[in-house]
Design brief:
heterodimer, A: 108 residues, mainly beta, six-stranded mixed sheet, 45% strand, B: 122 residues, seven-stranded mixed sheet, four-stranded antiparallel sheet, 11 strands
C-alpha cells in the first residue's frame, strides 16, 4: 500500500517558519490533507486539498504539494502551535486513506 | 455548530465486547460519511473504515474485519463501533470523524469526536 514518510520531529524558534514534509511516491498527483493534534485532544484539520485552509485556521498555516513531497508551512510559529502533525492522502490502489506517521513540532 | 460527541472511556477484560457511540449534531447526519480512526497509545492515526450514513453500508480497512462492526441509528444521528473478542492490542483511543461528503473517497475529515479510550486489561 501507499506509504507516507514524515520526519519524527521538527524544532523551530518562536516567530520563525516551520516546514513539515510528507514524502510519497508521486504525491504531487494526489490531494493531501493535514491535521494538527495537541496532547490529549482530537486531531483538527488545518489544510485540505493541498493548500486550502478551513475557516478558523490562521493564515500562518499553508500547504504545498509537488513531485514526491508535500509541505505544511507554519509562518511566525507560536508556542500554541506545538503539536503533532499528520498528513493524509487517499490511496486509490487500496481505496482507502493513508496517514503519515506524524511529526512532533517543538517550539523552542 | 457541528459536533460529534462520543461515549466515555471503557475498561474491558480480554474476550469481552465494547460498543462506542458517536452522536452527531448540527448537520444532516445522513449527508456525510462517518469514518473511524484508531490511535494506539503514543502512536499515529490508523483508519479503520467508514460507513455510508445514507445506505448504512460499511467498509472496513484491512486488519479491521471480523471483530469490528460499524452501525448506525439514524433516528438519533448516532454511529456506533462495536469490537468483539477484545485483545490487549485493541487498547487505544477510537475516534469518529466526519468526511466532507457522503462518499469517503479522497475527502478530508473536517470534524472529529473527542475520542473514546478503550482499555483492555485483565
Amino acid at each position: 500500500s501507499y506509504v507516507l514518510t514524515q520526519p519524527p520531529s521538527v524544532s523551530v524558534a518562536p516567530g520563525k517558519t516551520a516546514r513539515i514534509t510528507c514524502g510519497g511516491n508521486n504525491i504531487g498527483s494526489k490531494s493531501v490533507h493535514w491535521y494538527q493534534q495537541k496532547p490529549g485532544q482530537a486531531p483538527v484539520l488545518v489544510i485540505y486539498y493541498d493548500s486550502d485552509r478551513p475557516s478558523g485556521i490562521p493564515e500562518r498555516f499553508s500547504g504545498s504539494n509537488s513531485g514526491n513531497t508535500a509541505t505544511l508551512t507554519i509562518s511566525g510559529v507560536e508556542a500554541g502551535d506545538e503539536a503533532d502533525y499528520f498528513c493524509q492522502v487517499w490511496d486509490s490502489s487500496s481505496d482507502h486513506p493513508v496517514f503519515g506517521g506524524g511529526t512532533k513540532l517543538t517550539v523552542l | 455548530q457541528v459536533q460529534l460527541v462520543q461515549s466515555g472511556s471503557e475498561l474491558k477484560k480480554p474476550g469481552a465486547s465494547v460498543k462506542v457511540s458517536c452522536k452527531a449534531s448540527g448537520y444532516t447526519f445522513t449527508s456525510y460519511a462517518m469514518n473511524w480512526v484508531r490511535q494506539a497509545p503514543g502512536q499515529g492515526l490508523e483508519w479503520m473504515g467508514w460507513i455510508n450514513t445514507n445506505t448504512g453500508n460499511p467498509t472496513y480497512a484491512q486488519g479491521f474485519t471480523g471483530r469490528f462492526v460499524f452501525s448506525l441509528d439514524t433516528s438519533v444521528s448516532t454511529a456506533y463501533l462495536q469490537i468483539s473478542s477484545l485483545e490487549a492490542e485493541d487498547t487505544a483511543v477510537y475516534y469518529c470523524a466526519r468526511g466532507t461528503a457522503l462518499i469517503a473517497s479522497g475527502v478530508p475529515f473536517d470534524y472529529w469526536g473527542q475520542g473514546a479510550l478503550v482499555t483492555v486489561s485483565s
